[in-house]
Design a protein that fits this description.
The protein is mainly beta. It has two domains: about 120 residues, Sandwich (Immunoglobulin-like), CATH 2.60.40.1120; about 130 residues, Immunoglobulin-like (Sandwich), CATH 2.60.40. Helix content is about 10%, strand content about 50%. The chain is built from two helices and 25 strands. Strands 13, 14, 17, 20, 21 and 24 form a six-stranded mixed β-sheet that branches. Strands 1, 2, 5, 10 and 11 form a five-stranded mixed β-sheet that branches. A four-stranded antiparallel β-sheet has the order 4-3-6-9. Strand 20 and strand 21 form a beta hairpin. It is flat and about 75 Å long. It starts with a helix and ends with a strand.
């Protein structure tokens, strides 16, 4: 009898040990807070004084590896942007995580404007890019004085339109019992466009928009027919945390595993994007799904 009790107790210890060895399912972390970066941007004038730089665009780029520190598959980045007001002030809210916060690349874009208020001489006012560690709920103050290079009159600019549709791959049952990956339009989702050289700032310019109820998007980009510009553009959408679902033949939806679709991108075809042109039917598709 004692021997049987000892054997049962030993088996219980083994079972207990096995339970402790089972790994918990991975769960990606999300942002746990936010912070604000703010300040004033100024620019020099021919008179020797510095004045507020209105209309200057500022972006804050945070890699998803910073926002999802426990996810070994996190890729891509998120961009938060703002523009200085008439007094040169800006304020941008940025996602962060707890602890040491996130490392962010803050870019003040170039701007073209008046350098001599008397004769109207134009200048290129140069911005900069700087890395900061941004901590949740700790406001970061960052002021900057731009430098100037006289350029005379700016190039003649115009606008062009780039449009298309964003889709995502889910499983579709058709016929009954047969499941095929199928592209479905994705509504209310962010799409980005990088224009290789903005004629005003002389830098890459990032445009952002949101798809409509049918998954369609459209950008109006500033461009020029002047020499020295490639006028090329890249469309992309960043990593998309979600589930990959199954749409049944009955019309119902079966929710799939959680994970994310990897970022998707494409170069806008057709050569240089010059003023008045329309580049449509550019389809971006989330195709690669990575389950947690």
């Amino acid at each position: 009898m004692k021997k049987s009790i000892l054997i049962l107790a030993f088996i219980g210890v083994l079972v207990s040990c096995k339970k402790e060895e089972v790994a918990e399912e991975f769960e990606a972390t999300d942002q746990t807070g936010s912070t604000v970066i703010k300040g004033m941007i100024t620019k020099p004038q021919s008179t020797g004084s510095n004045v507020p730089a209105a209309g200057v665009s500022i972006s804050v780029k945070v890699n998803n590896t910073e926002l999802y520190p426990n996810s070994p598959t996190a890729t891509g980045s998120q961009v938060f942007s703002g523009t200085t007001d008439v007094n040169g002030y800006y304020s941008i809210s940025v996602k962060t995580v707890g602890g040491n916060g996130v490392n962010a690349l803050v870019t003040i874009n170039n701007s073209v404007g008046t350098f001599d208020p008397i004769n109207g001489t134009q200048a290129l006012f140069s911005g900069t890019s700087t890395n900061f560690q941004l901590i949740s709920n700790v406001t970061k103050d960052y002021n900057y004085l731009m430098t100037s290079t006289t350029i005379g009159s700016p190039v003649v600019t115009g606008t062009a339109v780039v449009s298309g549709t964003l889709k995502v791959m889910h499983y579709k049952e058709a016929p009954a019992g047969v499941y095929t990956l199928t592209a479905y339009t994705l509504a209310n989702h962010t799409v980005l466009l990088d224009f290789d050289k903005d004629p005003t700032t002389q830098l890459v310019k990032t445009y952002s928009t949101t798809t409509d109820a049918s998954g369609n998007y459209s950008f109006t980009v500033t461009t020029t027919a002047a020499a020295g510009y490639n006028n090329t553009a890249k469309l992309y959408a960043i990593d998309y945390p979600t589930t990959q679902d199954t749409i049944k033949i009955s019309g119902g939806t079966v929710t799939g595993k959680t994970g994310y679709f990897g970022n998707t991108s494409m170069n806008v075809p057709g050569g240089p994007i010059n003023p008045t042109e329309i580049r449509n039917a550019n389809t971006l598709t989330y195709g690669s799904f990575f389950p947690n």
